[in-house]
Amino acid sequence: VLFFGGNGLKLNHCRNGDEFMSVAIITDSNSGIFEKEAKENGIFVVPMPIIIEGKTYFEGIDIELDKFLELQEAGKDISTSQPAPASVMGTWDKALEEYDEVVYLPMTSGLSGSCATAMAFSQDYDGKVQVVDNHRISVTLKVSVYQALELSKKGYSARTIKEILEKEGAFAVRADRACRRPSSFSPRHRQKWPGM
Hints:
Layout: E1 4-5, E2 13-16, E3 19-28, H1 35-41, E4 43-46, E5 49-52, E6 55-58, H2 65-73, E7 78-80, H3 85-96, E8 101-105, H4 114-122, E9 129-131, H5 138-153, H6 158-180, H7 187-190
């Protein structure tokens, strides 16, 4: 099982009835969060596989960003793959040894099948694992991870954190689509208005 991060500090508590529940925050390395940062903040990270010239590497473990960019600029054959289910669930299981619940934030379902796969497997965890699909990648995914961390510190449950992040994600998607629609004041539409 490949993962890094998590410092065993149960800082995050949420109220469930009369009990306080601890919530672990997990993401994948597409967030740009790697070992040192993950450990400092108590975040668990699942490394994304990168295939370079037929050889598989794992982000933040056996290949760093600078090396990846160097190989990319050199024109090497590079592709990515979703994390193995065993790696993802192994990280959940490890986190659940220390925490009561998990919020998992993978790369957006729009670009990878890993989110849908994770959602399917989370059904076996009786609600203890909440998979967030808020249409985020890279820097925006990282922002969401820290939002989740702050929400957990404020006492929100894993399910509520998921609902908040997905609601924000849905709003952002609608706003983006609205911005992409042709404006009635764009040059293409102005000819339809009298006197313009």
